[in-house]
Amino acid sequence: MLALTLAATGLAGAGTATAAGPGVALTADVSRTTSSVNKTQFGEIVEDINHSVEGGLSANVVRNSTMKENGIAHWSAVTAGGGAGTVSLDTTQPLNAANGNSLKLSIADNARGQRVGVANDGFYGIGLAPSTKYTATFFARADGAFHGGVTVDLESTTGTVYAKATVRSVGAKWTKYSVTMTTGRDTPVSTANRFVIAADGVGAGSSLYFDVVTCQPPTYHDTGLRKDLMAKFAARKPGFFRVPGGNYLEGNTLSTYFDWKKTVGPIENRPGHQDDAWGYWSTDQVGLKGYLDMAEQTGAQPLLAVFAGYTLDHTVVPQSQLAPYVQDALDEIQYAIGGTNTKWGAQRAADGHPAPYDLHYVEIGNEDFFDGTGSYNTYRFPLFHDAIKAAYPTLQLVATTSVSSRPVDVIDDHYYSGDTSFFTDAAHNYDGTSRNGPKHLVGEYATTNGTKDNPTGTLAGAVSEAGFMTGMVRNADVVIGASYAPALADVNDFQWPTNEIAFDAGSSFGSPSYWVQHIFGNNTGDYVVSSALAGAAAGLNEVVTRTAAGTVYVTVANATNSPVASRIALNGTRFVRPNGTATVLTGDPNARNTLAAPNTVAPTTTAFRASNSFDYTFPANSVVALKVDTSAPMTPVLNVNRGLSLHVTTPGATDRSVAVTDGVGAASVVTASSPDAAKLDATFLLRPGLADPSCYSLESRANPGQYLSHRGDRITLGTDKRSATFCAVEGNSGIGVSWRSYDDPGRFLSYRNGKLSLAGCEHPADSSFTVGEPWWRSDVSVPLGRSSWQANTGDYLRHQNFVAKTSAITAGSAATDLQDATFTLEPGLADDSCYSFESVNFPGQYLRHYNFQVVLNQNDKSGLFAEDATFCATTGHNGQGISWQAYAYEDHYLRQYAGNVYIGADGGPRVGDAASGWADDTSWQRAAPWAG
Ligand code: AHR
């Protein structure tokens, strides 16, 4: 619960500067945005672990609903007044093919005034509340001489009835019964209750049979999902739900993975399965639709994880047998978003959801780095990728480990650590991540410091996670989102030590980590603002965001044990509204919440006085979000020294790019198959503004040294610093970027009828552009023909037994070594704006990467070979020579290390591969060919 507290002394800061003045300067230019915050920035992962779903999100309070959990576990006979009966498992007359077990109640004695029934003890009890309506459904049949009905009730474990309903008669055929019952006003809030179906004084000598028994209170938006848990999710404003898991998706074997087709349709037709990842029975009553509903009902997108042919016991589906699993994934996506005229879209409609779900991301598998066979890279990811992209080209695909065989849209990183400084130290993990490679999802992360009695962590762990989150938001252009994991745990039975929200049958509480998620979800703007911390000790991390309307959020995680006095400067705005609000989570770093004391660690909101420069003291062990209203305009900040193309924003003209051809600026049609000259004309290198480095100059890729300029209102190429400088502002039409002339600030780069000009903003849409990937992929031109390539160590790139290496080469080296170190540079096999390296002594054989290694292979003319053998030239990362970017894997560059050559990202391709030395290791000098 958030408490709004106004400081007693009026609009005083939560802390004030020390007499010596604040030691830390936090400066933000709130008019300059570096990227957008993603809608998916803060997510959830829900898998069935710790009874998150079965006994948790599933609102059905009846455990072992289908008599498949160790026979009839959690059911017992209940008798009163001298009635007698027993319960047993019956398999003689199945309800249907999916559910063949039933609960048999054999009634021995049951005269008037007596009672014989079945009782279910729920999931560690059944939570009841006063004045609450419960709906029970069950299938039943009777045999022998049973004539009469049954009563259904919710009662205490000692037999006090709180809610009751009657079924007038039960017949000989399986029939579905449905009743509602409401607890009285004086029903105690308690979990010491049971669910009972009983025959009152009838049926002696006969038997009753039950199957698929459910009972639930009102559910969240009528989804069948438990209200308090869903409300907690919704309150923290999640952007996505990564469903369904986790290890739960994979299962231990090919008969226990999440086989989604068995989880849709009427619940009585669902066989359920052993959740052997986590050790309990899953009825699958929530099922695929329930997972999709979790996202939709909390305003989030589902991030759908599909089973990818690998199970936790290391079974790998062979390539020859993978096709049905790929088809299952396609069908699953069709269930989520297909039209109702498709087979699975129709099933979704029949299940009660005709509209498609808001699906944009599909994850292929889970943690496939555990598959040591390499099958994920060689065929599993490619087969899923190709099939899904062919059917649903706009879906973004998430890989669960490094892949070089296909371009990857997003890669899922997981982090767990028991160390409460781990995530503070990880706050800058993504600062150096390549902006040309895949985006990142942090699909699982948490400080794992729960205890055997409490499945949630401490404030210290949560503050550490908040530090990491500041870094992920600062890098929102490359980190699409993150989900703390796992989301839920039953305090009575959990398999994972530390979770976001814990519950029992009656109530729930958020951990300190939950409150961190809550603070970020409710206190993050739509754009990241450039900010800096000076004078801060390690342990303090910040991110500043804003909305388009000018509300600024300064979010700081202080993982130190001392308060930190700071001076906060909000530049780039004339006006700062004085009454800001501070949401503060702080306390004993070792404190945790419990069911009995759920708010030991919870945020409070106070008022403070804000201005363009104000002092604020961040408490020890705290997460603070300061909210301030400003009048700051919006100015995007773009990555300098990179190639880009500018596209017009007119609907239906997505192939129109800004180009300058023969001195005339135009909005030209450029596509992947345009001639090289057209691609070069439409590619610019973004440089710091020649007249003002806070603006930009666009250097022509076709004419290096010439910049996009204006002569009067005409757009052309030139070198005049002022007319070649443009300032990027938020797109005049509300999308993309508009380019304001530096020396004529009332005018913008515009396009009308295909012509570029400098115009006033009377046609706002015409002056908005979107920034795209460059049409010409190489940033620098490299002469074609024979050459050798020298690494910073002085050694030369060569092949040796068809594997790329570096070694010393001199004029006196053996003739074959000289040849091995010589390549013919050709236009790239996959894209002639890049390059390929053909061996001089093995013509037709090219350097290519394969599973990160670089080898010499015969050109097999396949598209995959062409891509793997194509490298784009960029300026050397160490400022000299050339860095060679892998064409199909933009994050990766040709890298040498200790005599070996591979393609590596700045974090390295494998765990433990240090980033240090990366700039030198990926920079190559062109040298005269050793072989003539
Ligand atoms: O979040 C708990 C487990 O951790 C997930 O099931 C799995 O993906 C990871 O190993």
Task: Please explain how this structure is put together.
Helix content is 13%, strand content 36%. The protein starts with a strand and ends in a 5-residue tail after the last strand. The protein has 932 residues and is mainly β. It has 5 domains: 121 residues, Golgi alpha-mannosidase II (Immunoglobulin-like), CATH 2.60.40; 306 residues, Glycosidases (TIM Barrel, Alpha-Beta Barrel); 159 residues, Jelly Rolls; 135 residues, Trefoil (Acidic Fibroblast Growth Factor, subunit A), CATH 2.80.10.50; 143 residues, Trefoil (Acidic Fibroblast Growth Factor, subunit A), CATH 2.80.10.50. A hairpin with a 2-residue loop joins strand 36 and strand 37. Strands 1, 2, 26, 27, 28, 29, 30, 31, 32, 33 and 34 form an 11-stranded mixed sheet that branches. An 8-stranded parallel β-barrel has the order 3-14-17-18-19-20-21-22, surrounded by 5 helices. The N terminus is likely disordered. The chain is built from 14 helices and 58 strands. Bound molecules: alpha-L-arabinofuranose. The site of alpha-L-arabinofuranose has 11 residues, from loops.
